[in-house]
Amino acid sequence: MLGGKTGWDKLKSMDGLAYGNGRFGYRSLELATNSRSIDPDKSAVTDLLLDFEEPDASFADNAGNYSVEEKAFVSSSKVKMGKRAAMSRGNGGITLSGSPDSLFGSSGSKGSFLIEFWLCPSIAENGEIVFSWRSSRMENDYLLYQMISASFFSNHLRWEFINVFNGWKKDNGTVTLSCLRTIIPGVWAHHSISFDDDTGLLEYRIDGKIEALQYITSNGHEHGGSVCTPLLGVKANIEICPKYTGFIDDFRIQRTSESETASSLRYDTYKSNGGRFVTQPILISRGAKLERLDAIVNTPSQTDVAFYVRGGDNRFDWTDDYPKWIPVKNHEQITGVTGQYFQISGDLYPDGGGSRTPSVTEIKLAYTEVPLPLPPFSVFADAGDGEVTLSWSYSVDDQTGGYIVFYGDRPGEYLGQEAYEGASPLDVGNVCRMKFTGLKNGKIYYFAVASYSKSDGKIMGILSKEVYARPLRK
Predict the structure, then answer these.
(1) Nearby residues of 21 by Cβ (< 8 Å), 6 or more positions away
(2) Distance CA 27, CA 360 (A)
(3) What does the pLDDT read at residue 340?
(4) Mean pLDDT throughout 325-344?
(5) How many domains does the chain have?
(6) In a shared domain, residues 208 and 330
(7) How far apart are the first and last CA of the chain?
């Protein structure tokens, strides 16, 4: 059995899955939420990642580019992604200082960027601030105040960029993007603001849908003007939720625009391609036959769980694809899967909207084993000159296909090699008598006999009683 009261310690791998609460209070397998992560092949793209999953509420930057200067966040189980989120109580969120390699840790010209997070406000009052960066830069010997902020106004979240884009003169250097939809307290929504330095497009989205956009070019249009790239001045800290009451999850800054990573950005709770688990090969016994798989599963509407099994005697030559995985249905008869080891895998799929996950609480395997053949009831050893004649009664088990004889010079240790007939053990076939020659006179030898199955010669029963004999010259 796997899962249930025995737990999931026999799992070999889990991909895209997490542990949840299953039936009867047991731990179950379910889809992991679509939390943001750092792609090892594109680690330089991620500038900041706060997933808020740390059990000690340290809320460290997973990308390692920012250090925490001040923190008033508390950990919360009211989450959108993963197991934990952060709660801000209006008394300051988290202040981060960037390293020289980070986007906000150095001055100068910057390229494309994406700022995204999940937000669940409690009240969404005017003036509440979700993101803030304040600095200054010099232009023609004049000091220009700079700011990037996201704050609430009339139940809408509004982004402001003041003197951030070099060459942007409209509205005294200010760009404002405000969402069209009303922000509803107590409801999670995904917010993203992105800038593409190839086209100059600054775009604000909520749950993947465009709320506002502006081309940051010399003429304010998509074509015919030059792009006004971000130019940051004096290094300054960034503040997340410095004046905000509510919850936030998976805050991330990318050194790329949303359009360049659209294929990797999903706003569903669960990934559409689902998740997979594979157990370790489970030792049963030689010749075992898998009859049925019985699993306790929960499959909400449009979700599904697909099970696969395979079997064999030598698990050390198994690969990902060999032996072949055979699809099976829960509680239905299985044919053609035999061996000393069985292995199980399963694919879990969410619904089409990515909002519901199936779960697996327990898996049981029903199988039959080839019975071990009974040993001979009587065994006799007669000594001669340099030889021993061993005889035994045929096993009363009609599943016996032959016999294996063990011998050695110590009780219970059958490591003999002296006999001309060969080293121990010896497969003698379906006979009841054998002579051992070439033995040393005066030396005692011990013998035992085991039966093996006629359906599989590798299936051997227990040993018979031990007998002994001492060859002597008479």
Answers:
(1) 27, 28
(2) 9
(3) 86
(4) 94
(5) 3
(6) no
(7) 61
User: Can you list the positions of beta strands (E) in 108-226?
Assistant: 108-109, 113-121, 129-139, 142-153, 156-162, 174-178, 189-196, 201-206, 209-215
Is 442 a domain residue? Answer: yes
pLDDT recorded at residue 141: 86
Looking at the structure, tell me whether residues 352 and 383 fall in a common domain: no
Whose tokens are 């300054």? That residue is 236
Residue with the larger pLDDT of the pair 61 and 459: 61
pLDDT value of position 397: 82
Provide the 10 A C-beta neighbour count for residue 76: 18
CA 112 – CA 203 distance, rounded (Å): 12
DSSP 351: -
DSSP state of 45: T
Q: Tell me: pLDDT of 259 over 60.
A: no
- Both 315 and 393 in a single domain? no
d(CA 241, CA 70): 12
- In angstroms, the CA 374 to CA 150 distance is 80
Mean pLDDT, residues 410-436 taken together: 95
Mean pLDDT estimate for the chain: 92
| Nearest CA-CA partner of 340 in 304, 316, 319, 360 | 316
Q: What is the pLDDT of residues 1-11, one digit of tens each?
A: 899 999 999 99
Would you say residue 230 lies in a domain? yes
Cis peptide bond upstream of 323, omega within 30: yes
Asked if residue 421 lies in contact with residue 365, where contact means CB atoms within 8 angstroms, the answer is no
Rounded Cα distance, 401 and 424, in Å: 19
User: Judging by DSSP bridges, how do beta strands 74-76 and 85-89 pair with one another?
Assistant: antiparallel
**pLDDT tens digit sequence for 273-321:** 999 999 999 998 777 899 999 999 999 999 999 999 999 988 889 999 9
Query: Which CATH number covers residue 440?
Result: 2.60.40.10
Residue 261 pLDDT grade (very low, low, confident, very high; cuts 50, 70, 90): very low
Whether residue 150 is predicted with pLDDT greater than 90 in this model: the reply is: yes
SS3 content of the chain, % helix, strand, coil (to 5): 5, 50, 45
Q: Which of 265, 271, 279 is nearest to 348 (CA)?
A: 271
Segments forming the whole domain that contains residue 395: 379-469
Return the structure tokens found at 61: 């930057």
Going from the C-alpha of 328 to that of each of 14, 43, 97, 140, 293, the distances in angstroms are 20, 39, 54, 73, 8
| Nearest of 391, 332, 297 to residue 309 by alpha carbon | 332
412, 424 in Cβ contact below 8 A? no
Bridge partners of residue 153, in order along the sequence: 156
359 and 383 belong to one structural domain:
no
